[in-house]
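I wish you would study the pair of lines that follows with an eye to the fold:

===
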Amino acid sequence: MKKEYVVVRIDASPDGAPYVILSLSLTKDFKENNQPLQSPFGGGVMGFTNMDDMMKNLNKMFSGGALGGQSGLTSLKVDMREYKDLGISVGDKVYLEISKAESSGV
């Protein structure tokens, strides 16, 4: 299986390790949305009146609904050396190919 994606975001590792997170969107989804790229933190802010409301909506916040994040993104963890060798930047088209390994029956 081979699919075409567009790099929509590149983030540093949250723990400072030597890797980056590539966020990819299917090319067809990217063309259909035709929206400008969003910041990694989204454009909206969710307000709460008390702690109970915040806890009820916590899952929505993390899923991107409240923060304006894009759903349907594919994320890849890439070593810094691989990232530099590839020379990938936001807006580049990339292909992912997945194939099942042959089992030797041993």
